[in-house]
Amino acid sequence: MDLWHEFAARVTAAERELPGPEQLPLRLARACAQVLPVAGAGLSVFFNADRRLPLGGSDAAAGLAERLQFTVGEGPCLSAHRSGSPVLADEAELRARWPVFHDAVVARTAIRGIIALPLHGGLEGIGSLDLFVEPPGSVRDLSLADALTVTTALSDTFADAMDRQPRTDSGPAWLDAPAAGRRALVWQAVGFVSIGLDLDSTDALTLLRAQAYGTGRDLDEVAEAVLEDRLSLADLSHSAESGS
User: Which residues on adjacent β-strands are paired with residue 118?
Assistant: First the structure.
């Protein structure tokens, strides 16, 4: 069985555990991690430079690595999205190019290398696949040709699903993926902070990011705390003023 068909078979096999169109991104991410020599995979889309929406991670570490990139606002996936080209980074390059992200991901996961690949087809320019490597694995273990084959298979599978799936008033079904729902809370929190503290959305997002980084949490967690009133606007503002 060639790599393309093996990927398709893995996606189909995952439907028992992860049924429904909203779980398609999770099925795709897991299939990537199963057919390639990587520890995990994550799938996301961008609505603009800051608005990155995670759709699915193959495991908890992959999901955390995505959230850490989003929290600190830097990392291979963001660079791959901006350039439109694959980015391969071992730990030395992670440390040199994205030091804040490197420190966060090394402190909280076993991930020591990332391959970020832009998607094709209907998600070209907005979709991205992250592949995560843990020791003793290396980014050099991965054939770029194999990675691109799987990326193309993923892109085509996703595009076909988008054509076949019914759309609701809230958009395509994959926007109901659990990770996407949690990220939507961040944008609600940005709006809440923006209005409550009379900030533009960019400054509100920066304030939330600073709070997350300063307290060792990810941005999704801080957003939930704000919306649930476990972190007041007064405390958020005070933390920023005190530099914590």
Answer: 128
